[in-house]
Amino acid sequence: MGSMSIVHWMIVVGVVVLLFGKGKISGLMGDVAQGMKSFRKGLQEDDPAETPSHKTQASRSENSPPVAKS
Fold it and tell me: DSSP strand E in the chain: where?
């Protein structure tokens, strides 16, 4: 009873297609794909802003005089 058979999933998909229609489902999937692309693009735009600060910190540590450990 807990497991779903392939027949059950075929019936569920058939009901969803009948309710929403083939065109509406493909449009919805296209909207999801566009949202994912814009999210990834937003993440890539944020990364270059963080990169120079890391380089600045690294260059500061390279230019600072060595500290003697006791």
Answer: none
